[in-house]
Amino acid sequence: QVQLVESGGGLAQVGDSLRLSCAATGRISTYAMAWFRQAPGKEREFVATISWTGGTTHYADSVKGRFTISRDNPQKTLYLEMNELRPDDTAVYYCAADRDNYYCSGFGCYNPNEYDLWGQGAQVTVSS
Prior knowledge:
With 128 residues, the protein is mostly beta strands. 0% of the residues lie in helices and 46% in strands. A hairpin with a 6-residue loop joins β4 and β5.
């Protein structure tokens, strides 16, 4: 059973940058991957997704232009580069894998139920 382990979270100031990593214990090269986040008292929300080759990405409007999702399949690692951080980016960030698909499609990209493998989460706190 492949496991996903996030790292790189922490405390940041407004305007700072952070990079999250998600290391897999096994092969993820044929899986669509994504980042979601969940703030206290809120539902888990989509952040970004990437196809198996990295050639296709989708972003939530709230992070478009500030966050970049990428992957390194030989290193079995998913990344989320977060720039221009804002207080409303504060959340627990989760990486996820859709083991049934090479890439997400339509509304499935944004639906956490489409992803069947999850990491334990990494806290990101942005203070003003």
